[in-house]
């Protein structure tokens, strides 16, 4: 299976000026763990995860005055739709993160998480079991 088979094509995008509370509300409403941060001034991409928000709050920072741009990961590893799920999982393991932004020709196509990879593997195992069974 490939990243394109497991990625979510509905991606929450926010700007660097979103407060952490606003970002958390958007992620919570969509029941997702990460938002792609697009900075229109630099054309840069980053990712803000639930862990980033948690680390800030745990450090005693105010989520109403802290901005996504100050807490995102900007040194992002990107996947392509043609990567295997094993390649995506290996990149996540090497980098110590749980989400990859999926790009094709510089365009954000989706996002894939560890949860997505596990879901695909379970689905594949069930399908194999039905065929063998």
Number of domains: 1
Helix/strand-derived category reads alpha/beta
Q: Compute the separation of the termini in Å.
A: 21 Å
The CATH H-level homologous superfamily:
CBS-domain
Spans of at least 5 consecutive residues with low confidence = none
* Radius of gyration, CA atoms, in whole angstroms: 16 Å
Helix content: 40-55%
- Total strands: the figure is 6
Tertiary shape: elongated
Protein name: Histidine kinase
Keywords: CBS domain, Kinase, Transferase
InterPro entries: CBS_dom, CBS_dom_sf, Diverse_CBS-Domain
GO molecular function: kinase activity
Brief sketch in words of this structure:
The chain is α/β, with parallel strands linked by helices and 133 residues long. It has helices at 3-6, 20-30, 50-58, 85-95, 114-132, and strands spanning 13-14, 34-39, 44-49, 78-79, 99-104, 107-113.
Report on this structure.
With 133 residues, the chain is of the alpha/beta class. The chain has one domain: Roll (CBS-domain), CATH 3.10.580.10. It is built from five helices and six strands. The chain has helices at 3-6, 20-30, 50-58, 85-95, 114-132; strands at 13-14, 34-39, 44-49, 78-79, 99-104, 107-113. It has a three-stranded mixed β-sheet. Strands 4-5-6 form a three-stranded mixed β-sheet. Helix 2 (20-30) links the parallel strand 1 (13-14) and strand 2 (34-39). The radius of gyration is 16 Å and the shape is elongated. The mean pLDDT is 93. Residues 7-65, 72-129 form the CBS domain. It comes from Embleya hyalina. This is Histidine kinase. It holds the Pfam family CBS.
